[in-house]
Amino acid sequence: MKPPRIRYAEAMPEYQLLLLFENGTLGLYNLLPKLNNPIYAPLKDEVLFKALKIDGGGYGISWNEDIDLSEKECWENSKKIGEISRLIAQAA
Known about the structure:
CATH architecture: 2-Layer Sandwich
Order of helices and strands: EEEHEEEHEH
CATH topology: NE0471 N-terminal domain-like
Radius of gyration: 13 Å
Largest sheet: 4 strands, antiparallel
Strand content: 35-45%
Number of domains: 1
Shape: globular
Mean pLDDT: 92
Structural class: alpha+beta
Strand order of the largest sheet: 1-2-3-7
Helix content: 10-25%
CATH superfamily: NE0471-like N-terminal domain
CATH class: Alpha Beta
Distance between the termini: 33 Å
Number of helices: 3
């Protein structure tokens, strides 16, 4: 099964990423463990961390030419926190 693509991403406190996948699932990805890896260490700079972009077609998230995460990594390693349609219905 192909992982769903990313439709929305937002940098959250404590190096978390709030993600909305194309299937309506919301996920929370914890980037903190990766910050010890030299590739991801520059994201300790909060300005850079918040400057994330969704790659074309939702196939990942990137910060610059050297730092990115695939949609597969985000899907498989994010904590699923609900579905947007269910949350909207509950708020109504």
